[in-house]
């Protein structure tokens, strides 16, 4: 999705500026949230909460999904959609904004200057760290909205206000340190693989 959007937003020299990179990242994040992330994350969070409860009711993955759909319909796999769209949209917007900015800085006046995978990895880790600090509060809200106690919240805004009232501002940054280590490594690896796959595809299937 990012490639599709960025191909329509590059200038005559093939450059993608930081602002357009942010918008393309936002579009990619929203598409990712609706098509993939929301249903997968909802099921994952429900499973985690169920397995840590005194009397787990899901016997396995397929049984759990079947029970969720039977009890709540397909809507049950799309809990917290607004929070997920906000989280994934801002997540990818921040990552691609930082990554595009660093790439443009590194390449200078030559948009076709090759990048060493190691440098791509370092830039990816920085982009990952920026996204953690930028949207951990939205991640906390999203997780609460998808859990087994999501019924306590009327909507995404109400969830955020209840967390703030009952637990304070620090609650929005729970799990930041472990998430930071995982996300930095994750994003670094993803961007390295992403760049290498794009290079390979450009050789196998050249495009204008």
What report would you give on this structure?
Belongs to the mitochondrial carrier (TC 2.A.29) family. It is a multi-pass membrane protein. One of its GO terms (biological process) is mitochondrial citrate transmembrane transport. With 208 residues, the protein is mainly alpha-helical. It has 3 domains: 1-79, no CATH class; 81-174, no CATH class; 176-207. Helix content is 72%, strand content 0%. The protein has helices spanning 2-7, 18-51, 61-72, 81-107, 117-146, 156-167, 176-204. α4 (81-107) runs antiparallel to α5 (117-146). The longest helix has 34 residues, at 18-51.
Shape: elongated
Largest sheet: none
User: What class do helices, strands and sheet pairing give?
Assistant: mainly alpha
Number of domain modules: 3
Unreliably modeled segments: none
Helix content: over 70%
- The helix tally amounts to 7
C-alpha end-to-end distance: 18 Å
The string of secondary-structure elements, in order, is HHHHHHH
Number of strands: 0
Q: Residue-averaged pLDDT, rounded?
A: 87
Task: Provide a compact summary of the structure.
Belongs to the mitochondrial carrier (TC 2.A.29) family. With 208 residues, the chain is mostly helical. It has helices spanning 2-7, 18-51, 61-72, 81-107, 117-146, 156-167, 176-204.
Blueprint (SSEs and pairs):
Blueprint: H1 2-7, H2 18-51, H3 61-72, H4 81-107, H5 117-146, H6 156-167, H7 176-204
